[in-house]
Specification:
The chain has 367 residues and is an alpha/beta fold. It contains 14 helices and eleven strands. The structure holds nicotinamide-adenine-dinucleotide, ligand LNCXM5UN and zinc ion (ZN). It catalyses: 7-phospho-2-dehydro-3-deoxy-D-arabino-heptonate = 3-dehydroquinate + phosphate.
Length: 367
């Protein structure tokens, strides 16, 4: 078992990473202040892991809250199901909410914790690769709005993140690949040597090699914890974690959520951000191509959806949390391993990037 720390002063918390932690009640008990626990999960994860977690939580009363599964349910109606269940069970403000699931469960359970009785404690127990390397760490919680992704939410930090790597054994391969998009993101934005390591180990990751997966999770969490520790509420540097997301969120919103997975949309979005970085003369085409082939080898889409026009992108990209006074800001790369957040680009370069024939680009690459 390894433990990292998210260093946020009085809101600091540990990230425990290890095998079979789900059954180790002591890791949870340490972070549970009262006698009441509510476990928020969904109908796919509950039959796999809920009983094991309930059995491990000796000495507290447990209220399971089982939500419908899917990105399309990350909304007000589903959030309200959590409040209904908390109130029906008469859980008080000493309750600890445990989010048992992927990023959808984690974002909603965290937001519910931020709101219920003006804030109760919560623990992240992420069960997808994406949630283990990204969404469980850093305190971004919230829900989608039909007009924009994650538009309603709060920064609200958990008491702890407990990552049981064995839960990945049941994860569908498509979901594993989606998680790899965010892993590759860390290499692109802040850790070029990690990118090289991923190029060597991508096949082992896709084959669920336990040691290699654990190392990828550890390095990803360390990168995220460092950025979050430097800028908890995204007033500056934290926005680099959004590489590819302005394009990717446009894809997810355009599709009405849940058609492409978040990681898939981010993968295509990162290719677009890298293409734009090339067009600005910052990144050599060979570096873009290196990233594109790694994403493709990870089983991810590297071209945007064929039916989305540049106007579609521009309309959705105008609704982005990085827009200030109507000015779009994007995360681009100065070089592999170094991202910048900038509004300093000619509009024509963005428009040209959106009009690129990505299939032709891919064909040239032979990826
Ligand atoms: N808060 C953040 O910082 C942050 C960061 C990245 C992504 N996100 C959000 O996270 C969400 C995506 O998260 P995700 O990729 O985990 O998707 P998800 O939560 O939808 O989970 C993916 C699928 O895998 C299933 N599943 C989960 N664990 C499983 C397991 N161990 N075995 C079998 N099936 C399992 C889920 O039921 C679901 O069907 C998006 O809403 C995205 O916006 C948030
Ligand atoms: O933690 C962050 O900060 C991130 O940007 C991580 C992203 O991977 C994640 O998808 C996040 O939810 C996007 O944030 P948003 O503020 O653009 O909704
Ligand atoms: Zn993301």
């Amino acid at each position: 078992m390894q433990t990292l720390e998210v260093d946020l002063g009085e809101r600091s918390y540990p990230i425990h990473i290890g095998d079979q932690l789900l059954s180790r009640g002591e890791f949870f008990r340490e972070h549970i202040g009262g006698k009441q626990v509510a476990i928020v999960t969904n109908e796919t994860i509950a039959p796999l892991y809920l009983d094991r977690l309930v059995d491990a939580l000796v000495g507290v009363t447990v209220t399971p809250i089982v939500l419908p599964d899917g990105e399309a349910y990350k909304n007000w109606q589903t959030l309200n199901l959590i409040f209904d269940a908390l109130l029906t069970a008469r859980l008080d403000r000493k309750v600890t909410i445990i989010a048992l699931g992927g990023g959808v469960v984690g974002d909603m359970a965290g937001f519910a914790a931020a709101c219920y009785q003006r804030g109760v404690e919560f623990i992240q127990m992420p069960t997808t690769l994406l949630s283990q390397v990204d969404s469980s760490v850093g305190g971004k919680t919230g829900i989608n709005h039909p007009l924009g992704k994650n538009m309603i939410g709060a920064f609200y930090q958990p008491q702890a993140v407990i990552i049981d790597t064995s839960t990945l054994s049941t994860l569908p391969p498509r979901e594993l690949s989606a998680g790899l998009a965010e892993v590759i993101k860390y290499g692109l934005i802040c850790d070029e040597p990690f990118l090289g390591w991923l190029e060597e180990h991508v096949q082992a990751l896709r084959s669920l090699d336990a040691a290699v997966l654990t190392e990828a999770i550890r390095r990803s969490c360390a990168a995220k914890a460092k950025v979050v520790g430097a800028d908890e509420r995204e007033s500056g540097i934290r926005a680099i974690l959004n590489l590819g997301h302005t394009f990717g969120h446009a894809i997810e919103t355009h599709q009405g959520y849940g058609v492409w997975l978040h990681g898939e949309a981010v993968s295509a979005g990162m290719v677009m951000a890298l293409e734009m970085s090339c067009r600005l003369g910052w990144l050599p085409a060979s570096d873009r191509d290196r990233a594109v082939s790694l994403l493709a080898r990870a089983g991810l889409p590297v071209t945007p959806p064929a039916d989305m026009t540049s106007e579609d992108f521009l309309r959705h990209m105008a609704v982005d949390k990085k827009v200030i006074n109507g000015q779009l800001r994007l995360v681009l790369l100065k070089r592999l391993g170094e991202a910048v957040v900038t509004a300093d680009f000619p509009r024509e370069v963005l428009e040209a990037t959106l009009r690129v024939d990505y299939d032709a680009l891919l064909a040239q690459l032979g990826a």
